[in-house]
Amino acid sequence: MSFLHPLALFGLAAAAIPALLHLLHRRTPPELAFPPLRYLSEAERQSARRLKLRHLLLLLLRTALIVVIVLAAARPLVPVRGGGEHEPTAVVVILDNSPSSGAVVDGRPVLDHLRVAARGSIARTSTADRVWLLLADGVIRAGGREALLASADSATPDWRRLDLVQAVARAARLVHAEPLPGREVHVLSDLQRTALATGHADVPPGVRVLSLAPARGRPAANRGIASASVAEGAVLVAVTGSDGGEAAPLTVRIGTRDVGRALAAPGAGAAVSVALPPQRTGWWVGEAALEPDELRADDRRPFVWRVAPPARVASGPAAGPFLAAALSVLRDARRVGEGRDVIVGEVPAGSTGRWVVQPSADPALIGQANRALAARDVPWRWGAAGTPGRLVSRELEQIAGTQVTRRYRLEPTGSGGGGGGDVLATVNGEPWLVRAGDVVLLGSRLDTAWTGLPAAPGFVPFVDALVNRVVAGAAAVEVAEGTPRVEFHVRGADTIGATVFALDARESDLTPATPELVAAAFGPDALVLNDARLAAERFAGTRRADASALLLAMALLLAAAELGVATLTR
Protein backbone atom coordinates (compact mmCIF):
# COMPACT_ATOMS: atom_id res chain seq x y z
CA MET A 1 0.00 0.00 0.00
CA SER A 2 1.15 3.54 -0.72
CA PHE A 3 -0.28 7.01 -0.10
CA LEU A 4 -0.72 10.01 -2.34
CA HIS A 5 -0.40 12.37 0.66
CA PRO A 6 1.82 10.52 3.17
CA LEU A 7 2.37 13.64 5.32
CA ALA A 8 -1.27 13.45 6.37
CA LEU A 9 -0.39 10.30 8.35
CA PHE A 10 1.06 12.53 11.04
CA GLY A 11 -2.58 13.17 11.92
CA LEU A 12 -2.73 9.66 13.39
CA ALA A 13 -1.36 11.23 16.54
CA ALA A 14 -4.85 12.66 17.05
CA ALA A 15 -6.10 9.11 17.66
CA ALA A 16 -4.73 9.47 21.19
CA ILE A 17 -7.09 12.35 22.00
CA PRO A 18 -10.11 10.20 23.01
CA ALA A 19 -7.95 8.09 25.31
CA LEU A 20 -6.46 11.20 26.94
CA LEU A 21 -9.87 12.74 27.45
CA HIS A 22 -11.11 9.48 28.92
CA LEU A 23 -8.25 9.40 31.41
CA LEU A 24 -8.62 13.07 32.35
CA HIS A 25 -12.34 12.72 33.08
CA ARG A 26 -11.90 9.71 35.29
CA ARG A 27 -12.48 10.62 38.98
CA THR A 28 -12.89 8.54 42.14
CA PRO A 29 -15.88 9.75 44.22
CA PRO A 30 -15.48 9.88 48.04
CA GLU A 31 -16.89 6.97 50.01
CA LEU A 32 -19.29 7.76 52.88
CA ALA A 33 -21.06 5.30 55.11
CA PHE A 34 -24.80 5.61 54.54
CA PRO A 35 -26.57 2.57 55.96
CA PRO A 36 -29.95 3.04 54.25
CA LEU A 37 -28.26 2.77 50.83
CA ARG A 38 -26.30 -0.41 51.46
CA TYR A 39 -28.95 -2.49 49.75
CA LEU A 40 -28.18 -0.59 46.51
CA SER A 41 -24.49 -1.65 46.39
CA GLU A 42 -25.18 -4.67 44.21
CA ALA A 43 -27.16 -2.57 41.70
CA GLU A 44 -24.34 -0.01 41.68
CA ARG A 45 -21.74 -2.64 40.80
CA GLN A 46 -23.87 -3.85 37.86
CA SER A 47 -24.38 -0.28 36.61
CA ALA A 48 -20.65 0.42 36.87
CA ARG A 49 -19.86 -2.57 34.66
CA ARG A 50 -22.31 -1.29 32.03
CA LEU A 51 -20.82 2.20 32.17
CA LYS A 52 -17.27 0.84 31.76
CA LEU A 53 -18.35 -1.19 28.74
CA ARG A 54 -20.09 1.87 27.23
CA HIS A 55 -17.06 4.09 27.81
CA LEU A 56 -14.69 1.51 26.33
CA LEU A 57 -16.90 1.09 23.27
CA LEU A 58 -17.11 4.86 22.79
CA LEU A 59 -13.34 5.13 23.18
CA LEU A 60 -12.75 2.49 20.52
CA LEU A 61 -15.29 4.01 18.11
CA ARG A 62 -13.92 7.54 18.47
CA THR A 63 -10.31 6.37 18.09
CA ALA A 64 -11.20 4.30 15.01
CA LEU A 65 -13.13 7.27 13.57
CA ILE A 66 -10.09 9.54 13.85
CA VAL A 67 -7.76 6.88 12.37
CA VAL A 68 -10.09 6.25 9.41
CA ILE A 69 -10.50 9.99 8.72
CA VAL A 70 -6.72 10.53 8.78
CA LEU A 71 -6.11 7.55 6.47
CA ALA A 72 -8.74 8.85 4.06
CA ALA A 73 -7.00 12.24 4.01
CA ALA A 74 -3.71 10.49 3.13
CA ARG A 75 -5.47 8.86 0.11
CA PRO A 76 -4.12 5.28 0.30
CA LEU A 77 -3.52 3.33 -2.92
CA VAL A 78 -4.13 -0.41 -2.83
CA PRO A 79 -3.08 -2.99 -5.50
CA VAL A 80 -5.78 -3.97 -8.01
CA ARG A 81 -5.81 -6.03 -11.23
CA GLY A 82 -8.15 -3.91 -13.31
CA GLY A 83 -8.71 -0.16 -13.51
CA GLY A 84 -7.38 2.25 -10.93
CA GLU A 85 -4.31 4.43 -10.91
CA HIS A 86 -0.75 3.12 -10.93
CA GLU A 87 2.33 3.98 -8.98
CA PRO A 88 5.02 6.15 -10.62
CA THR A 89 6.48 4.13 -13.48
CA ALA A 90 9.40 4.49 -15.88
CA VAL A 91 8.25 3.27 -19.29
CA VAL A 92 9.77 3.23 -22.79
CA VAL A 93 7.30 2.80 -25.65
CA ILE A 94 9.02 1.27 -28.71
CA LEU A 95 7.02 2.12 -31.83
CA ASP A 96 8.62 0.13 -34.64
CA ASN A 97 7.95 2.21 -37.73
CA SER A 98 10.52 0.35 -39.82
CA PRO A 99 9.77 0.00 -43.54
CA SER A 100 7.85 -3.26 -43.00
CA SER A 101 5.26 -1.34 -40.93
CA GLY A 102 4.03 0.15 -44.20
CA ALA A 103 2.74 -3.24 -45.38
CA VAL A 104 -1.01 -3.30 -45.97
CA VAL A 105 -2.85 -6.03 -44.02
CA ASP A 106 -6.65 -6.33 -44.06
CA GLY A 107 -6.96 -3.09 -45.97
CA ARG A 108 -4.86 -0.81 -43.74
CA PRO A 109 -1.15 -0.31 -43.01
CA VAL A 110 0.30 -2.21 -40.06
CA LEU A 111 1.59 1.09 -38.66
CA ASP A 112 -1.97 2.34 -38.11
CA HIS A 113 -2.54 -0.53 -35.69
CA LEU A 114 0.78 0.07 -33.95
CA ARG A 115 0.08 3.79 -33.55
CA VAL A 116 -3.22 3.03 -31.79
CA ALA A 117 -1.42 0.71 -29.37
CA ALA A 118 1.30 3.32 -28.74
CA ARG A 119 -1.34 5.96 -28.03
CA GLY A 120 -2.96 3.60 -25.52
CA SER A 121 0.32 3.15 -23.65
CA ILE A 122 1.25 6.85 -23.58
CA ALA A 123 -2.27 8.04 -22.71
CA ARG A 124 -2.27 5.87 -19.55
CA THR A 125 0.74 7.68 -18.11
CA SER A 126 0.55 10.42 -15.48
CA THR A 127 2.70 13.35 -14.44
CA ALA A 128 4.43 11.12 -11.88
CA ASP A 129 5.71 8.77 -14.61
CA ARG A 130 8.88 9.00 -16.70
CA VAL A 131 8.01 8.27 -20.32
CA TRP A 132 10.13 7.87 -23.46
CA LEU A 133 9.27 7.06 -27.08
CA LEU A 134 11.68 5.13 -29.33
CA LEU A 135 11.15 5.06 -33.11
CA ALA A 136 13.04 3.36 -35.93
CA ASP A 137 15.54 6.21 -36.14
CA GLY A 138 16.98 4.98 -32.82
CA VAL A 139 16.40 8.29 -31.01
CA ILE A 140 14.91 7.98 -27.51
CA ARG A 141 12.49 10.88 -27.09
CA ALA A 142 11.59 12.17 -23.63
CA GLY A 143 8.80 14.61 -22.93
CA GLY A 144 5.34 15.18 -21.64
CA ARG A 145 2.38 13.00 -22.49
CA GLU A 146 0.89 15.35 -25.09
CA ALA A 147 4.21 15.85 -26.88
CA LEU A 148 4.86 12.11 -27.09
CA LEU A 149 1.30 11.45 -28.26
CA ALA A 150 1.85 13.93 -31.07
CA SER A 151 5.13 12.22 -32.01
CA ALA A 152 3.48 8.80 -32.08
CA ASP A 153 0.51 10.03 -34.12
CA SER A 154 2.80 11.69 -36.70
CA ALA A 155 5.07 8.65 -37.16
CA THR A 156 5.27 7.36 -40.72
CA PRO A 157 7.12 4.34 -42.13
CA ASP A 158 10.83 5.09 -41.92
CA TRP A 159 13.43 3.88 -44.40
CA ARG A 160 15.70 2.74 -41.57
CA ARG A 161 15.50 -0.67 -39.97
CA LEU A 162 15.11 -0.88 -36.19
CA ASP A 163 17.18 -3.49 -34.38
CA LEU A 164 14.49 -4.66 -31.96
CA VAL A 165 16.80 -6.70 -29.75
CA GLN A 166 19.16 -3.77 -29.29
CA ALA A 167 16.23 -1.37 -28.79
CA VAL A 168 14.74 -3.50 -26.01
CA ALA A 169 18.14 -3.79 -24.32
CA ARG A 170 18.62 -0.01 -24.42
CA ALA A 171 15.11 0.64 -23.15
CA ALA A 172 15.47 -1.88 -20.32
CA ARG A 173 18.71 -0.28 -19.14
CA LEU A 174 17.11 3.17 -19.24
CA VAL A 175 14.06 2.33 -17.13
CA HIS A 176 16.11 0.18 -14.75
CA ALA A 177 18.20 3.23 -13.86
CA GLU A 178 15.13 5.19 -12.73
CA PRO A 179 14.31 5.19 -8.96
CA LEU A 180 10.60 4.52 -9.49
CA PRO A 181 8.45 1.62 -8.25
CA GLY A 182 7.49 0.47 -11.77
CA ARG A 183 9.69 -0.21 -14.82
CA GLU A 184 8.20 -1.33 -18.15
CA VAL A 185 9.10 -1.59 -21.83
CA HIS A 186 6.24 -1.71 -24.36
CA VAL A 187 7.23 -3.21 -27.73
CA LEU A 188 4.79 -2.27 -30.49
CA SER A 189 6.05 -3.96 -33.64
CA ASP A 190 5.08 -6.40 -36.38
CA LEU A 191 7.75 -8.67 -34.80
CA GLN A 192 9.41 -9.82 -38.01
CA ARG A 193 11.38 -13.00 -37.49
CA THR A 194 14.34 -11.43 -39.30
CA ALA A 195 14.40 -8.67 -36.65
CA LEU A 196 14.77 -11.21 -33.83
CA ALA A 197 16.87 -13.89 -35.50
CA THR A 198 20.13 -12.91 -33.81
CA GLY A 199 21.09 -11.56 -30.43
CA HIS A 200 19.54 -11.53 -26.97
CA ALA A 201 18.40 -8.51 -24.97
CA ASP A 202 19.83 -8.39 -21.46
CA VAL A 203 16.78 -7.32 -19.44
CA PRO A 204 17.55 -6.49 -15.77
CA PRO A 205 15.37 -8.03 -13.05
CA GLY A 206 12.28 -6.01 -12.22
CA VAL A 207 11.78 -4.70 -15.76
CA ARG A 208 8.59 -5.91 -17.45
CA VAL A 209 8.68 -6.34 -21.24
CA LEU A 210 5.24 -6.28 -22.88
CA SER A 211 5.03 -6.94 -26.61
CA LEU A 212 2.06 -6.61 -28.93
CA ALA A 213 1.38 -9.90 -30.65
CA PRO A 214 1.43 -9.89 -34.48
CA ALA A 215 -1.84 -10.31 -36.32
CA ARG A 216 -3.02 -13.88 -36.60
CA GLY A 217 -3.26 -15.67 -39.87
CA ARG A 218 -0.92 -16.19 -42.76
CA PRO A 219 1.59 -13.36 -43.28
CA ALA A 220 1.17 -11.18 -46.32
CA ALA A 221 2.94 -12.61 -49.35
CA ASN A 222 5.56 -10.13 -50.42
CA ARG A 223 8.32 -9.76 -52.98
CA GLY A 224 11.12 -7.25 -52.76
CA ILE A 225 14.36 -6.40 -54.52
CA ALA A 226 17.26 -7.33 -52.26
CA SER A 227 20.08 -6.01 -54.46
CA ALA A 228 20.89 -4.76 -57.96
CA SER A 229 24.43 -4.48 -59.32
CA VAL A 230 26.06 -4.24 -62.71
CA ALA A 231 28.81 -6.56 -63.94
CA GLU A 232 29.96 -7.61 -67.40
CA GLY A 233 27.34 -5.54 -69.20
CA ALA A 234 24.33 -6.91 -67.29
CA VAL A 235 22.44 -6.01 -64.15
CA LEU A 236 22.10 -8.81 -61.60
CA VAL A 237 18.93 -8.44 -59.53
CA ALA A 238 18.31 -10.55 -56.41
CA VAL A 239 14.71 -10.93 -55.23
CA THR A 240 13.64 -11.75 -51.68
CA GLY A 241 10.40 -11.78 -49.70
CA SER A 242 8.04 -13.78 -47.51
CA ASP A 243 7.61 -17.51 -47.86
CA GLY A 244 5.12 -18.39 -50.55
CA GLY A 245 5.59 -15.26 -52.63
CA GLU A 246 4.95 -15.84 -56.32
CA ALA A 247 7.09 -14.85 -59.27
CA ALA A 248 6.44 -11.39 -60.67
CA PRO A 249 7.58 -9.37 -63.68
CA LEU A 250 10.78 -7.40 -63.14
CA THR A 251 11.52 -4.28 -65.17
CA VAL A 252 14.93 -2.65 -65.56
CA ARG A 253 15.00 1.04 -66.49
CA ILE A 254 17.67 3.57 -67.35
CA GLY A 255 16.17 6.97 -66.77
CA THR A 256 12.61 6.73 -68.12
CA ARG A 257 13.45 4.04 -70.69
CA ASP A 258 12.71 0.35 -70.12
CA VAL A 259 15.72 -1.69 -71.21
CA GLY A 260 14.80 -5.19 -70.08
CA ARG A 261 12.21 -7.43 -68.42
CA ALA A 262 12.35 -10.78 -66.65
CA LEU A 263 10.28 -13.01 -64.37
CA ALA A 264 11.61 -13.05 -60.80
CA ALA A 265 10.60 -15.30 -57.91
CA PRO A 266 11.62 -14.64 -54.27
CA GLY A 267 13.86 -17.00 -52.42
CA ALA A 268 17.35 -17.46 -51.06
CA GLY A 269 19.79 -16.99 -53.90
CA ALA A 270 17.06 -16.16 -56.42
CA ALA A 271 18.41 -13.69 -58.97
CA VAL A 272 17.92 -12.73 -62.58
CA SER A 273 20.33 -11.17 -65.05
CA VAL A 274 19.20 -8.54 -67.53
CA ALA A 275 21.58 -7.44 -70.30
CA LEU A 276 22.17 -3.69 -70.55
CA PRO A 277 22.62 -1.85 -73.84
CA PRO A 278 26.03 -0.25 -74.47
CA GLN A 279 26.36 3.21 -72.93
CA ARG A 280 28.72 6.10 -73.42
CA THR A 281 31.63 6.68 -71.03
CA GLY A 282 30.56 8.03 -67.66
CA TRP A 283 28.34 7.23 -64.68
CA TRP A 284 24.89 5.79 -65.29
CA VAL A 285 21.93 5.34 -62.99
CA GLY A 286 19.23 2.70 -63.44
CA GLU A 287 16.35 1.20 -61.53
CA ALA A 288 14.97 -2.30 -61.04
CA ALA A 289 11.24 -2.40 -60.31
CA LEU A 290 8.65 -5.06 -59.42
CA GLU A 291 4.92 -4.80 -59.72
CA PRO A 292 3.36 -3.18 -56.58
CA ASP A 293 2.26 -5.53 -53.78
CA GLU A 294 1.41 -5.29 -50.06
CA LEU A 295 4.72 -3.59 -49.22
CA ARG A 296 5.50 -0.85 -51.73
CA ALA A 297 8.78 0.28 -50.16
CA ASP A 298 10.82 -2.66 -51.50
CA ASP A 299 9.39 -2.77 -55.02
CA ARG A 300 12.02 -0.42 -56.47
CA ARG A 301 15.79 -0.27 -56.09
CA PRO A 302 18.25 2.03 -57.87
CA PHE A 303 21.65 0.94 -59.12
CA VAL A 304 24.63 2.77 -60.57
CA TRP A 305 27.65 1.82 -62.64
CA ARG A 306 30.58 3.45 -64.38
CA VAL A 307 31.39 3.00 -68.03
CA ALA A 308 35.07 3.66 -68.74
CA PRO A 309 37.50 2.57 -71.44
CA PRO A 310 39.88 -0.22 -70.38
CA ALA A 311 43.09 0.98 -68.81
CA ARG A 312 46.20 0.68 -70.96
CA VAL A 313 48.67 -1.24 -68.81
CA ALA A 314 52.37 -2.01 -69.07
CA SER A 315 54.23 -4.43 -66.80
CA GLY A 316 57.96 -4.65 -66.31
CA PRO A 317 60.15 -7.65 -65.41
CA ALA A 318 59.70 -6.88 -61.71
CA ALA A 319 55.97 -7.59 -61.93
CA GLY A 320 56.47 -11.33 -61.58
CA PRO A 321 54.83 -14.28 -63.38
CA PHE A 322 51.51 -14.28 -61.52
CA LEU A 323 50.79 -10.60 -62.15
CA ALA A 324 51.83 -10.97 -65.79
CA ALA A 325 49.47 -13.94 -66.21
CA ALA A 326 46.56 -12.03 -64.68
CA LEU A 327 47.14 -9.08 -67.01
CA SER A 328 47.23 -11.48 -69.97
CA VAL A 329 43.81 -12.84 -68.98
CA LEU A 330 42.44 -9.29 -68.68
CA ARG A 331 43.82 -8.39 -72.12
CA ASP A 332 42.10 -11.40 -73.65
CA ALA A 333 38.85 -10.29 -72.02
CA ARG A 334 39.45 -6.72 -73.27
CA ARG A 335 39.46 -5.41 -69.71
CA VAL A 336 42.92 -3.83 -70.26
CA GLY A 337 44.82 -2.70 -73.33
CA GLU A 338 48.40 -2.10 -74.37
CA GLY A 339 49.95 1.20 -73.29
CA ARG A 340 51.50 3.02 -70.36
CA ASP A 341 48.54 4.69 -68.65
CA VAL A 342 49.23 2.35 -65.72
CA ILE A 343 52.64 0.77 -65.02
CA VAL A 344 52.70 -2.32 -62.83
CA GLY A 345 55.54 -3.84 -60.85
CA GLU A 346 58.26 -1.18 -61.11
CA VAL A 347 59.33 1.50 -58.67
CA PRO A 348 58.09 4.85 -60.08
CA ALA A 349 61.04 6.64 -61.58
CA GLY A 350 59.26 8.94 -64.00
CA SER A 351 56.95 11.85 -63.35
CA THR A 352 53.93 10.83 -65.40
CA GLY A 353 51.48 7.94 -65.43
CA ARG A 354 49.93 5.87 -62.70
CA TRP A 355 51.87 3.18 -60.87
CA VAL A 356 51.07 -0.05 -59.02
CA VAL A 357 54.21 -0.83 -57.03
CA GLN A 358 55.17 -3.95 -55.09
CA PRO A 359 58.30 -4.36 -52.92
CA SER A 360 61.48 -5.79 -54.34
CA ALA A 361 62.19 -9.48 -53.82
CA ASP A 362 65.72 -8.50 -52.72
CA PRO A 363 65.75 -6.92 -49.23
CA ALA A 364 68.95 -5.07 -50.15
CA LEU A 365 67.02 -3.04 -52.74
CA ILE A 366 64.31 -1.79 -50.33
CA GLY A 367 66.33 1.30 -49.41
CA GLN A 368 66.80 2.21 -53.07
CA ALA A 369 63.07 1.73 -53.67
CA ASN A 370 62.22 3.99 -50.74
CA ARG A 371 64.45 6.74 -52.14
CA ALA A 372 62.64 6.45 -55.47
CA LEU A 373 59.30 6.82 -53.68
CA ALA A 374 60.56 9.91 -51.85
CA ALA A 375 61.76 11.41 -55.14
CA ARG A 376 58.22 10.97 -56.46
CA ASP A 377 56.88 12.70 -53.30
CA VAL A 378 55.07 9.55 -52.21
CA PRO A 379 54.44 9.96 -48.44
CA TRP A 380 54.87 6.22 -47.69
CA ARG A 381 57.81 3.84 -47.46
CA TRP A 382 58.49 0.17 -46.88
CA GLY A 383 59.65 -0.48 -43.32
CA ALA A 384 60.59 -3.56 -41.35
CA ALA A 385 59.12 -6.99 -42.01
CA GLY A 386 55.63 -7.48 -40.63
CA THR A 387 53.98 -10.47 -38.99
CA PRO A 388 51.80 -12.88 -41.02
CA GLY A 389 48.05 -12.44 -40.97
CA ARG A 390 44.89 -12.20 -43.04
CA LEU A 391 43.83 -9.36 -45.28
CA VAL A 392 41.02 -7.06 -44.18
CA SER A 393 39.42 -4.77 -46.74
CA ARG A 394 36.00 -3.20 -47.11
CA GLU A 395 36.60 -1.70 -50.54
CA LEU A 396 38.11 -4.85 -52.10
CA GLU A 397 36.00 -7.70 -50.82
CA GLN A 398 37.56 -10.22 -53.22
CA ILE A 399 40.79 -10.24 -51.20
CA ALA A 400 39.33 -10.14 -47.69
CA GLY A 401 40.43 -13.10 -45.57
CA THR A 402 43.37 -14.08 -47.80
CA GLN A 403 46.46 -15.19 -45.91
CA VAL A 404 49.65 -13.10 -46.09
CA THR A 405 52.79 -14.93 -44.96
CA ARG A 406 55.45 -12.36 -45.85
CA ARG A 407 55.19 -8.60 -45.98
CA TYR A 408 56.83 -5.27 -45.28
CA ARG A 409 55.17 -2.70 -43.09
CA LEU A 410 53.98 0.35 -45.03
CA GLU A 411 55.00 3.38 -42.96
CA PRO A 412 53.91 7.00 -43.48
CA THR A 413 56.66 9.56 -43.96
CA GLY A 414 54.55 12.72 -43.59
CA SER A 415 55.00 15.19 -40.75
CA GLY A 416 53.42 13.99 -37.52
CA GLY A 417 53.57 10.37 -38.68
CA GLY A 418 50.49 10.60 -40.90
CA GLY A 419 50.87 9.72 -44.56
CA GLY A 420 48.62 11.12 -47.23
CA GLY A 421 46.29 8.94 -49.28
CA ASP A 422 43.94 6.08 -48.51
CA VAL A 423 44.55 2.77 -46.74
CA LEU A 424 42.57 0.20 -48.74
CA ALA A 425 43.62 -3.04 -47.01
CA THR A 426 45.31 -4.01 -43.75
CA VAL A 427 47.00 -7.02 -42.12
CA ASN A 428 46.89 -7.22 -38.33
CA GLY A 429 45.67 -3.63 -38.30
CA GLU A 430 48.69 -2.35 -40.28
CA PRO A 431 48.47 -0.91 -43.83
CA TRP A 432 49.07 -3.43 -46.59
CA LEU A 433 47.57 -1.64 -49.63
CA VAL A 434 47.84 2.15 -49.84
CA ARG A 435 46.85 4.68 -52.51
CA ALA A 436 48.75 7.99 -52.48
CA GLY A 437 47.87 10.20 -55.42
CA ASP A 438 48.46 8.20 -58.60
CA VAL A 439 50.67 5.58 -56.88
CA VAL A 440 49.41 2.36 -55.26
CA LEU A 441 51.77 0.53 -52.87
CA LEU A 442 51.55 -3.13 -51.89
CA GLY A 443 53.09 -4.51 -48.71
CA SER A 444 53.77 -7.90 -50.34
CA ARG A 445 54.79 -9.14 -53.74
CA LEU A 446 51.95 -10.78 -55.64
CA ASP A 447 53.60 -14.17 -55.44
CA THR A 448 52.57 -17.37 -53.70
CA ALA A 449 55.74 -17.23 -51.60
CA TRP A 450 54.41 -14.02 -50.04
CA THR A 451 50.63 -14.43 -50.05
CA GLY A 452 47.95 -16.88 -51.09
CA LEU A 453 46.27 -14.21 -53.21
CA PRO A 454 47.66 -15.35 -56.64
CA ALA A 455 46.10 -18.79 -56.10
CA ALA A 456 42.73 -17.37 -54.96
CA PRO A 457 39.68 -17.10 -57.30
CA GLY A 458 39.54 -13.36 -56.67
CA PHE A 459 43.06 -12.63 -57.88
CA VAL A 460 42.20 -11.64 -61.47
CA PRO A 461 39.23 -9.44 -60.34
CA PHE A 462 41.57 -7.87 -57.79
CA VAL A 463 44.13 -6.99 -60.49
CA ASP A 464 41.26 -5.70 -62.65
CA ALA A 465 40.17 -3.42 -59.81
CA LEU A 466 43.72 -2.27 -59.18
CA VAL A 467 44.47 -1.11 -62.73
CA ASN A 468 40.99 0.08 -63.77
CA ARG A 469 39.64 1.64 -60.57
CA VAL A 470 41.93 1.81 -57.55
CA VAL A 471 44.95 3.45 -59.15
CA ALA A 472 42.64 5.94 -60.89
CA GLY A 473 41.28 7.04 -57.50
CA ALA A 474 37.77 5.77 -58.21
CA ALA A 475 35.87 4.29 -55.27
CA ALA A 476 33.63 1.28 -55.36
CA VAL A 477 29.88 1.66 -55.39
CA GLU A 478 28.73 1.53 -51.78
CA VAL A 479 25.31 0.55 -50.45
CA ALA A 480 23.68 2.25 -47.48
CA GLU A 481 20.31 2.23 -45.76
CA GLY A 482 17.96 5.11 -46.47
CA THR A 483 15.52 6.69 -48.88
CA PRO A 484 16.15 5.13 -52.33
CA ARG A 485 18.52 7.40 -54.22
CA VAL A 486 22.05 7.65 -55.60
CA GLU A 487 24.64 10.09 -54.27
CA PHE A 488 27.90 10.64 -56.16
CA HIS A 489 31.29 11.28 -54.52
CA VAL A 490 33.24 14.07 -56.12
CA ARG A 491 36.93 14.96 -55.79
CA GLY A 492 37.59 18.25 -57.49
CA ALA A 493 35.93 18.03 -60.87
CA ASP A 494 36.00 14.22 -60.99
CA THR A 495 33.30 11.81 -59.88
CA ILE A 496 35.19 9.07 -58.04
CA GLY A 497 32.40 6.93 -56.61
CA ALA A 498 28.76 6.64 -55.61
CA THR A 499 26.55 5.43 -52.79
CA VAL A 500 23.25 3.70 -53.45
CA PHE A 501 20.69 4.19 -50.68
CA ALA A 502 17.95 1.60 -50.44
CA LEU A 503 15.86 -0.52 -48.11
CA ASP A 504 17.46 -3.21 -45.93
CA ALA A 505 16.61 -6.45 -47.75
CA ARG A 506 15.55 -8.15 -44.50
CA GLU A 507 12.52 -5.86 -44.30
CA SER A 508 10.95 -7.69 -47.24
CA ASP A 509 10.31 -10.87 -45.23
CA LEU A 510 7.04 -10.18 -43.40
CA THR A 511 6.92 -13.56 -41.62
CA PRO A 512 6.28 -12.94 -37.89
CA ALA A 513 8.50 -14.40 -35.19
CA THR A 514 7.40 -17.46 -33.25
CA PRO A 515 6.78 -17.22 -29.46
CA GLU A 516 9.95 -19.25 -28.92
CA LEU A 517 11.98 -16.76 -30.94
CA VAL A 518 10.50 -13.82 -29.00
CA ALA A 519 11.36 -15.52 -25.69
CA ALA A 520 14.91 -16.14 -26.89
CA ALA A 521 15.31 -12.49 -27.94
CA PHE A 522 13.53 -10.64 -25.11
CA GLY A 523 13.86 -13.17 -22.28
CA PRO A 524 11.50 -15.88 -20.98
CA ASP A 525 9.55 -13.39 -18.82
CA ALA A 526 8.54 -11.21 -21.77
CA LEU A 527 4.80 -11.18 -22.44
CA VAL A 528 3.41 -11.33 -25.99
CA LEU A 529 -0.18 -10.09 -25.77
CA ASN A 530 -3.08 -9.26 -28.05
CA ASP A 531 -4.69 -5.81 -27.91
CA ALA A 532 -7.13 -6.58 -25.10
CA ARG A 533 -4.60 -8.30 -22.86
CA LEU A 534 -1.99 -5.62 -23.52
CA ALA A 535 -4.47 -2.95 -22.40
CA ALA A 536 -5.12 -4.94 -19.20
CA GLU A 537 -1.45 -5.65 -18.44
CA ARG A 538 -0.08 -2.12 -18.97
CA PHE A 539 1.15 -0.88 -15.59
CA ALA A 540 -0.56 -3.89 -13.95
CA GLY A 541 2.47 -4.52 -11.79
CA THR A 542 2.06 -1.09 -10.18
CA ARG A 543 -1.67 -0.47 -10.57
CA ARG A 544 -3.35 0.99 -7.49
CA ALA A 545 -6.89 2.13 -6.60
CA ASP A 546 -7.67 5.09 -4.32
CA ALA A 547 -9.30 3.69 -1.17
CA SER A 548 -10.18 7.09 0.36
CA ALA A 549 -13.85 6.88 -0.69
CA LEU A 550 -14.22 3.52 1.02
CA LEU A 551 -12.58 4.89 4.17
CA LEU A 552 -14.90 7.92 4.22
CA ALA A 553 -17.89 5.60 3.99
CA MET A 554 -16.46 3.60 6.87
CA ALA A 555 -16.00 6.84 8.82
CA LEU A 556 -19.69 7.66 8.38
CA LEU A 557 -20.64 4.24 9.71
CA LEU A 558 -18.34 4.67 12.69
CA ALA A 559 -19.76 8.13 13.39
CA ALA A 560 -23.29 6.77 13.26
CA ALA A 561 -22.34 3.91 15.58
CA GLU A 562 -20.70 6.33 18.02
CA LEU A 563 -23.77 8.54 18.04
CA GLY A 564 -26.00 5.56 18.67
CA VAL A 565 -23.90 4.27 21.54
CA ALA A 566 -23.65 7.75 23.08
CA THR A 567 -27.41 8.43 23.01
CA LEU A 568 -29.11 5.06 23.39
CA THR A 569 -27.10 3.92 26.39
CA ARG A 570 -27.68 6.96 28.59
Compose a concise summary of this entry:
This protein is of the alpha/beta class.
Q: What does it look like?
A:
With 570 residues, the chain is an alpha/beta fold. The chain folds into four domains: 2-29 and 36-81 and 546-568, no CATH class; 88-218 and 513-541, von Willebrand factor, type A domain (Rossmann fold, 3-Layer(aba) Sandwich); 223-308 and 504-508, Immunoglobulin-like (Sandwich), CATH 2.60.40.10; 311-474, Rossmann fold, CATH 3.40.50. It is 27% helix and 30% strand. The strands form eight sheets. Strands 19-18-20-21-28-27-26-23-24 form a nine-stranded mixed beta sheet, covered by helices on one side. A six-stranded mixed beta sheet has the order 8-7-4-9-10-32, with helices on both faces. A four-stranded antiparallel beta sheet has the order 1-2-33-3. Helix 2 (41-74) packs antiparallel against helix 12 (548-568) and helix 7 (321-332) crosses helix 9 (459-470). The radius of gyration is 40 Å and the shape is elongated. The model has no long low-confidence stretch (mean pLDDT 84).
Task: Detail the topology: elements first, then pairings.
Blueprint: E1 2-3, H1 17-24, H2 41-74, E2 76-79, E3 85-86, E4 89-95, E5 104-105, E6 108-109, H3 110-123, E7 130-134, E8 140-142, H4 145-153, H5 164-176, E9 182-188, H6 193-196, E10 208-212, E11 223-231, E12 234-241, E13 248-254, E14 257-264, E15 271-275, E16 282-290, E17 300-307, E18 311-315, H7 321-332, E19 336-338, E20 342-344, E21 354-357, H8 366-375, E22 380-385, E23 389-392, E24 403-404, E25 408-412, E26 422-427, E27 430-436, E28 439-442, H9 459-470, E29 477-481, E30 485-491, E31 494-502, H10 515-522, E32 527-529, H11 531-537, E33 543-546, H12 548-568
Parallel strand pairs: 4-7, 4-9, 9-10, 10-32, 18-19, 18-20, 20-21, 21-28, 29-31
Antiparallel strand pairs: 1-2, 2-33, 3-33, 5-6, 7-8, 11-12, 12-15, 13-14, 13-16, 16-17, 22-25, 23-24, 23-26, 26-27, 27-28, 30-31
Helix pairs in contact: 1-2, 2-12, 3-4, 7-9
